């Protein structure tokens, strides 16, 4: 599709005093554009003296994921979410994992699809998904679509999640706080010089925006990518912890997330030992909940009762069990209320168990040190229902899935340290691609990976 077609008038802009330029007021960059020019994000621009958004409804393929994918551990643990991500970004991180969709000059039109707000709600409802997540490149530059669809989502009784670097002005953020339930914010670091050089943004507006959310009743979690050679020596982690302790509620979690080389930044992946060292440092600074992200190992992301240390939520990568919480979110052992909201809301509802079927296609994928999650992507033209059977080896545990209303992508991840292989069987002839996911909130595009070599 030509994604530049069907632009519409944007929110948050004004004409300058001279009357010859439009100033965009959505993010702190405040781009000034003459007629025919685009702003820095390349998805908002001046059309004959009126400011337009060009990406309304334009998204990568909607994908079923898990709420932990978004660095959210204290809200509906294990909930399936419907993730949508647009194109363009108000920043340009040198290590961006979604650079093929966030940086427009690298965009392949084949990765852009179009949804109406109503279609997004229908996709979620027909697949029994309770959370809609605005994620991947960054929802800030998708403001109008996020706002309109989130209003519909609230009317439909759905939960909304906003995963963002939060480089946004406070007025549009106030509009989001009205309709977003969960904010998962990527605070890049506490060093303004790094923000300017490596992220093409500034630190203070991000801190101000986080404080505005913290002052509301919305759920907030903070994540920080620990990038080799940038913010991995402990100084920044300590600054982050001190700022969080001073400005945020003590129950706000911090996720220290392993980075992988991407886009222009090629230093080695974050070592587990580095993450463990930083975790100790921030715990010593008094943070109560510190998790490690992009780490598939036992006991890195579990939640324990603050009162009796009972295991409340057990996580391995994106596999989640809730053994220690009752329906009210209290510890089953000592009945102390936990900080987790809607504790059992993410657990499967009472649906009929799907029966086995005769497979028409079979695919196998071997897990390795680099790849512990994949998107499976079914390119199908009709909105038919597709049934999928998963076998986890060597345990031979079998799981059945059903994708309805044209849902085409779903994330699958390694569920235990012992698991070596995933066997995927479908009851249809629709071609299936297996796309490695290298990071949380990484959206693998189809030409980025040699997809067919995994099929
Ligand atoms: S949202 Fe885009 S156009 Fe507006 S100020 Fe930010 S980068 Fe510039």
Please explain how this structure is put together.
The chain has helices at residues 99-102, 117-126, 143-155, 170-179, 192-199, 203-214, 235-247, 272-284, 451-454, and strands spanning 8-9, 13-15, 22-24, 32-33, 44-47, 50-53, 58-59, 63-66, 80-84, 113-114, 131-134, 159-164, 182-186, 219-226, 254-258, 290-293, 303-304, 311-316, 319-321, 361-366, 373-378, 386-393, 397-403, 409-413, 421-426, 432-437. It has nine helices and 26 strands. β3 (22-24) and β4 form a beta hairpin. The protein is of the alpha/beta class. The strands form six sheets. An eleven-stranded mixed sheet has the order 16-15-14-13-12-11-9-8-24-21-26.
User: What's the architecture of the largest domain, going by CATH?
Assistant: Alpha-Beta Barrel
Largest sheet: 11 strands, mixed
Overall geometry comes to globular
Spatial extent as radius of gyration:
21 Å
Q: Which percent bin holds the helix content? A: 10-25%
Instruction: Please report the first level of CATH classification, the CATH class of the largest domain.
Output: Alpha Beta
Q: What's the name of the CATH homologous superfamily of the largest domain?
A: Aldolase class I
Q: Please report the distance between the alpha carbons of the first and last residues.
A: 26 Å
Quote the average pLDDT. 92
**SS class:** alpha/beta
Strand content: 25-35%
Report low-confidence residues grouped into runs of 5 or more.
449-455
For the secondary structure, the number of strands is: 26
Which ligands occur here?
iron/sulfur cluster
Oligomeric status of the shown chains? single chain
- CATH fold field value of the largest domain: TIM Barrel
Number of helices: 9
Quickly count the domains. 3
Strand order of the largest sheet: 16-15-14-13-12-11-9-8-24-21-26
